[in-house]
Amino acid sequence: MAAIHVVIVFLLCTSLCTVVKCDAYAQEILSSAQKEKDWLVSVRREIHQHPELAFQEHNTSALIRSELDKLGIPYTYPVAKTGIVAQIGSGSSPIIAIRADIDGLPLQELVEWEYKSKIDGRMHACGHDAHATMLLGAAKLLNQRKDKLKGTVRLLFQPAEEGARGASQMIKDGVLQDVEAIFAVHIDATTSTGAIASIPGPFTAAGCIFEAKIEGVGGHAAFPHQTVDPLLATSLAILALQQLVSREIDPLHSQVLSVTYIKGGDALNVIPSYVKFGGTLRSQTTEGMYHFRQRLKEIIEGQASVHRCNAYVDFKEEAFTPYPAVVNDKDLHLHVERVGRLMLGPDNVHEAKKAMVGEDFAFYQEVIPGVLFSIGIRNKKVGSIHSPHSPFFFLDEEALSIGAALHTAVAELYLNEHSI
Ligand SMILES: *[C@@H]1O[C@H](CO)[C@@H](O)[C@H](O)[C@H]1NC(C)=O
Ligand SMILES: [Zn+2]
Ligand SMILES: [Zn+2]
């Protein structure tokens, strides 16, 4: 009987935490955020229906600025072309930053629902619409508490996370000036709504792309001895690349190399004069990625030379700067975990799983300590179970107010603990 009674009391209490372990301050912030749910949902749906690609987020940026105007929060614009930097608090140190990315993806949304993307071939499939909305929510809550803040919170609405180094551009434009710590969330469809996941140290991978051209001498397929066959050289180069991870990399240090295309030749009776191929490589550490890249180049050039061909390897740095690895600061990670437990309950703070994806938040962490943590959106009832970048990606909008509340409490409590 007693056990059943306890279970019932537990179920009756807030779904997010047990009565005993939760903290009044964190609960107050969460309930303030939940009162903003309708507003947050409407902002997010507006952004969701009009996804814009890297550095073209003009309407998204205008929408965010109009909400900041309504809230009376000062900001700087443009930063990094379409980005916005708002600031709340005392204006003096400590200064911390919270970053939200705002760009969508070149992807056709395949979810049929009322607020589906209105733009063909573009979709907010990585949850950046939710990130931007959560940060706006935090802007509103922090602004209500601005006289209590023991320092300054800088809100970074960053363009172009998806492969276009928006974070680098923000840093070049000076957004980290005097900032001592930076926080960000990313939605996560493997973690339940109402939970978060974080990890100290390496989290997401360093990565880069490559393209190679192997040049031989083309000719009639009936006279291979009169040609220098670049297709054979390419085949052996690609096979040789597969040995890199298995034979040269510490098995405890994750690295991935994927060749994703090969193009060469058009005819069935002609040996082409050259072949192009390319792909991506990722490493748990930034140094590992640079070493890996060097070996990739040597192997392609070496294999080409064995087969009397020439090779040219291009890392396309102009279009795609290599991403450093996201490496979370241990103390900031512990801070996030602590705030997560206070707000969501100890059972809802998990260890994040490392992933070989890239995230340009890493650029900020090259300059100052930061933590990127995952915010759960998984909810079978609403169908939010698909991974980011899937055309079926769907958001549990309950996560919006939780994200806004977490940003607020993470920032305010950090300032309380670090003010001089
Ligand atoms: C941006 O807003 C303008 C004016 O409302 C509209 O004409 C345009 O289609 C919008 N662009 C996108 C990408 O939503
Ligand atoms: Zn993405
Ligand atoms: Zn993303």
TrEMBL record:
A Pfam cross-reference name: Peptidase_M20
One Gene Ontology term from the biological process aspect of the record: auxin metabolic process
Co-factor(s): Mn(2+)
Cofactor note: The Mn(2+) ion enhances activity.
Residues the entry annotates as binding Mn(2+): C126, H128, E162, H186, H389
This protein's record includes keyword Metal-binding: yes
A Gene Ontology molecular function term of the record: metal ion binding
PANTHER family membership: IAA-AMINO ACID HYDROLASE ILR1-LIKE 3 (PTHR11014:SF140), PEPTIDASE M20 FAMILY MEMBER (PTHR11014)
Protein name from the UniProt record: Auxin conjugate hydrolase
